[in-house]
Amino acid sequence: MRPDRDYIIQLLSTEGKEALQALYDKAYSVKKQFVGTTVYFRGLIELSNICAKNCYYCGIRSGNPDFERYQMSFEEALKEAKWCYDNHYGSLVIQAGEREDKPWTDFITRLITSIKEVTKGKLGITLSLGEQTEQIYRQWFQAGAHRYLLRIETTNQELYKKLHPADHSFEQRLNCLRTIKKIGYQVGTGIMVGLPEQTIANIADDILFFYDEDVDMLGMGPFIPHHGTPLKHLVDGFSNEKALELGLKLIATCRIVLKDVNIATTTALQALHPEGRELGLLAGANILMPNITDTKFREGYQLYDGKPCLDENANMCQGCLSRRIASIGETIGFDQWGDSKHFSPSK
Ligand code: 5AD
Ligand code: SF4
Ligand code: FES
Fold this sequence. Notes:
Elements: H1 5-12, H2 17-34, E1 38-48, H3 74-86, E2 91-96, H4 102-118, E3 124-128, H5 134-143, E4 147-149, H6 157-163, H7 170-183, E5 186-189, E6 192-193, H8 200-212, E7 217-219, E8 221-222, H9 240-258, E9 262-265, H10 267-272, H11 276-282, E10 287-288, H12 295-298, H13 314-327, E11 331-332
Parallel strand pairs: 1-2, 1-10, 1-11, 2-3, 3-4, 4-5, 5-7, 6-8, 7-9, 9-10
Helix pairs in contact: 1-8, 2-9, 3-4, 4-5, 5-7
The chain binds 5'-deoxyadenosine, iron/sulfur cluster (SF4) and FE2/S2 (inorganic) cluster.
């Protein structure tokens, strides 16, 4: 049944320490019932910070000249995928800025094919590479990718227009999401919360959008202003506590009303609080994306200010994260894909 809009608004409007704890506890019990307390890892490879787009909130937008652009070599990317496999991560996520040129799309196809080969088809592959043509989405699916993340960012079209240049089209993004689904990928989307002028009612409509589009996975997080963007005037008045709280409320509300989807506890939460990602798990998330990008590239992939683990390599994050997860009494689903329970290929 379609969730009730007023109920969603009520959950998102929760205030006060005790009421918030009750909200997170409720979400946690729904999580236990529908998806369990195993955390699935997706090793995150930030393949390149070259992006053809210019979203006003993003630190690596094409209009920011203040840092060097990089693209990992084929061998480097493959080495990181192998690391994931050797360390028993069930899946990886290949993420990069958006590009549609053929050398790039071919590079990705070749990479997916090789990752499948060297991991004997066992490593799950999620892509997060932006808007592409149907033909390219198909090509990558056939090469072996089976999940795709494309955040809608906000479903309020006026807000979308304010946050993007005129040639970035909401409609096209929505069409991409539907194409991805049609092809057979597990579909992930998400939004940012705490965007300027965004209301609680807007966020409720975003959550109804997730329901209506029947998405399998969610990656969402608080907007964190970046000093090198047109939204830099928001850096000064920004409150880590408020942003974190809103991010956690969003996760909890989605878990309570959507129940069986996979929800990521994102790095943006950890940027706001040292235990941000654990708090996300306790508020209902069940997916974690450890960054396995080589440290020499991490400086260059700062979508927002304060991104954590810039100096920690994959091995250090591995130990650190295992301790963090054990500390909240959860287990890690090593060597498993951890597909969304919401997804069924025949649907
Ligand atoms: N704060 C938080 N998240 C951001 N993203 C981009 N810029 C920011 C920011 N300033 C998110 C977007 C995008 C994802 C790759 O990173 O939601 O889809
Ligand atoms: Fe590029 Fe994504 Fe940043 Fe937009 S949010 S500028 S598409 S990397
Ligand atoms: Fe990177 Fe803790 S997660 S060091």
